Amino acid sequence: MVKAYLRYEPALAFGVIASVESNISYDFSGKHILAPALEKIGVWHVRQGVCTKTLAPSNSSRNSLSLAVTSIASSPSSLIASGYGDGSIRIWDSEKGICETTLNGHKGAVTVLRYNKAGSLLASGSKDNDVILWDVVGEAGLFRLRGHRDQVTDLVFLELGKKLVSSSKDKFLRVWDLETQHCMQIISGHHSEIWSMDVDPEERYLVTGSADPELRVYTLKHEMVDGQSTTENGTQPVNYGDLSTQNKWEVLKKFGEIQRQSKDRVATVRFNSLGTLLACQVAGKTVDIYCILDDANAKRKAKRRHRRKKEKKSSKGAAEVAAGKDEKVDVEEDGNDTSITVLDVFKLLQVVRARKKICSISFCPVTPKNSMATLALSLNNNLLEFYSLESNASTNTFSIELQGHRSDVRSVTLSSDNTLLMSTSHNAVKFWNPSTGSCLRTIDSGYGLCGLIVPHNKYALVGTKEGKIELIDIGSGTCVEVVEAHGGSVRSIIAVPNENGFVTGSADHDVKFWKYQMKQKPDQDTKQLTVSNTRTMKMNDDVLVVAISPDAKYIAVALLDCTVKVFFMDSLKFFLSLYGHKLPVLCMDISSDGALMVTGSADKNLKIWGLDFGDCHRSLFAHNDSVMAVQFVHNTHYMFSVGKDRLVKYWDADKFELLLTLGGHHADVWCLAISNRGEFVVTGSHDRSIRRWDRTEEPFFIEEEKEKRLEEMFEDLDSAFENKYTPQEELPEEGAVALAGKKTQETLTGTDLIIDALDVAEVEMKRIAEHEEEKIHGKVASFQPNAVMLGLSPSDYVLRALSNIHTNDLEQTLLALPFSDALKLIAYLKDWTTNPDKVELVCRVATVLLQTHYHQLITTPAARPVLTVLKDILYARVKECKDTLGFNLAAMDHLKQLMASRSDSLFRDAKEKLLKIRSVQSKRLAERSDTGEGKRKRKKQKKSK
User: In terms of Cα–Cα distance, which of 428, 376, 380 is closest to 399?
Assistant: First the structure.
């Protein structure tokens, strides 16, 4: 009988506050901050410092590597957009915590997302150099804008002119007209890659930042109804009739340059919600805060500057002729309103300095009463900081840091009863609840490389890089004692089975045996844990790992010379020398029955040894990089290994077979720990995350997993072959427009489903026609419908197949249809227009098919009657739907006006005020019922009556 194994699946990931791959963003209310946590998004309550929700995509494939969040954008509503490394975009409802839709269009990682002010449109930029505009309401892509020669770094909507500005690493800005879908202006001038840009809320200035030593500021020209244009910085309106053709399309005009304080490149440029502050974050530890003056203050500052300049020139006593010319120029400048320079508008207010390198910034959309603005920073050490900006200084008001390590998780250790998890990093030890992922204790320590939780979960031992052993009281969260144990880093610490002791191995060539006991020191009131060295074994090289057999008979020591020495535990006499690895052994473990030992090395191999004779049973190529940890499941010969290739692998040491490959980490995996019964596995990584993998009741077989791995390998080869030999498109300099979607496995599957539905419907229609003909000839027989069609008519069956396709994939699905099937599909459109809910779908299908097969349709006589009927019906149906929507919008607008007329405040404020009044009233009623005040009042009323 074929042996079945139980599957392990990812269950929990914790320890990451803010990863470095993406930006942070406030939500629309300003109460929550959206922080990327590798493949998830954490929704943190700013005041409470608690993660209230986690937005995580569902794993479509068990063994697929999870993709990190690369960009986040929040809309004016509760919707949140997140971009991923594979080019997909997910739209989340932050209040419900669910994914509304997934948009596929980019072939590279999404680098920037930006909503328009209404929240109905979403623009996305990617490493594939394309910009895609998405309809958020319709959950579909509108069009793709091509023209940039390198990845898109930032996007900005210009609401007044219905434009979109994009910046790229190709050093160019492009202004796109969203109505005509073309590039109307290309702006050069930067000497290096443009990394960020932003426009103020009133759309007066657009600021761009690069690696250049200055910020570039542009003024915006907006089109007016009377055919004139104006800029918002005080210049006079200019008539379009006086402009040349080039100036007519000039939306952005250079205003000036602002010298930056830092030499590092600009990472992010952002205005606050009021447009009064500008933050310039560099790829370092500082954020420059600029104050934007209004027109009146800017003019006063310009006049003062001109006056000082004039006084300075007159004091020099220059020649009379030259002085006369200068005075003339000064008079002209004083009388000209356009003499305002960028330095008159932008004034450096202060510089915010963080403790570590800043990854991204975000202004709070709600301005606090006691300060100018609130700025959130995400640092590259897994930390969120919040600063209150005032006119003369900035104050660090709050930090979110306790829920994660500042650096790599170097070791994870489970307690004997699996209720406590200890993790170590370069400066702290943290204790977790492994079932919930909540952080219980955080204790400052040295650089912990290994750890051990003493039985009864009262104390823990940590071996540090400095060669010390730290004794930690878990209950009080304090370090009780620091023992100078070794002269080099403590690489391994392991408990002696069935004894009150442990063994440490160090880089100082020593293996030391320790005994711990409870003692009361003279200056202490209670007994504390103390350790004492009982024996020391000298080795010839650095000790990397130590392992003890479960019966405490053997001790194995892995040395830097790539060998493993096995000694008798009691006498410390030499027993075996295991050699075969080409690079040092970094991890090892002995099975529960003491029969097998497994070693993992930097040569990427696992070797399984027999401890009876020291023979190598099998050498397995395990990982694509160094094997960092390996451990047997208790009472079995199954084992887990982790490596620098980011993978967790599950093995059978008897059959020498790979059982499962678990992908989820985004960086090197350093350590692992397995529960006593093997019901879950915990791993720690360079990405600062701790992940738990649970054993399920679902069985699997080795052969099936082998076939799946082969299929995935061939799919990867096919995709690599296609990408290599796909002809590269030459992009025109002016920019171009293309379809927003991309061909995926889902679109090809949707095309197959439509073709199958058309074939089944065609056969069914023939059967119906034959049955009708038999009825005419008098051969009456009961008609048996096709069970495959689920009792639907042929038209409804095809409509059902078409409706099941995601709206974002509809265009690419229809593009893959052959012309013969497209003609069949057009014939059904007439019947579907009778359903008001499907009019929009019918219009989209008709538009795509007509655009795709236009030349074939006009030359096909069979298509003309169908198109003629559609022409008469479709316009009427669309007009009916438009009238219905208009009527509903007018009714809602009328209700809004009625609500606003009953209150002095705005509609939204009135609604919030009403809800607050109701909540206060309900609280008072509850309090009265609790205190009995209501009863007393009712008695008084009865007596008065």
Answer: 376
Residue 507 · residue 465 · CB < 8 Å = no
Q: Which of 173, 169, 167 is nearest to 185 (CA)?
A: 173
Neighbours of 725 (CB within 10 A): 7
Helices (H), 726-793: 745-776
CA 875 and chain centroid, separation: 43
pLDDT at 351 over 70: yes
Confidence of residue 32 (pLDDT cuts 50, 70, 90): very high
**With bands split at pLDDT 50, 70 and 90, how would you rate the model's confidence at 604?**
very high
The pairing of strands 501-506 and 510-519 is: antiparallel
Q: What is the pLDDT of residue 463?
A: 95
DSSP state of 278: E
Q: Is there a contact between 885 and 913 (Cβ–Cβ < 8 Å)?
A: no
Average pLDDT over residues 767-777: 82
pLDDT single digits (tens) 322-345? 445 444 444 444 444 447 888 889
Q: Residue 127, SS3?
A: coil
Alpha-carbon distance 83 to 106, whole Å?
10
> Cα separation of 841 and 829, whole Å?
10
Sequential DSSP letters for 667-687 = S-EEEEEE-TTSSEEEEEETT
Which pTM value belongs to this model?
0.83
Amino acid identity of 625?
D
Between 745-776 and 819-832, two packed helices, what is the crossing angle to 10 degrees? 70
DSSP state of 4: -
**Torsional class of 147: left (φ above 0), alpha (ψ -120 to 50), beta (otherwise):** left
Residue written as token pair 């793709």: 144
Residue 785 CA to residue 581 CA, distance in Å, equals 69
**3-state DSSP call for residue 351?**
strand
| Phi, psi dihedrals of residue 172, rounded to the nearest 5° | -115, 150
For the chain, give percent helix, strand, coil, nearest 5.
25, 40, 35
Q: State the CB neighbour count (10 A cutoff) for residue 667.
A: 15
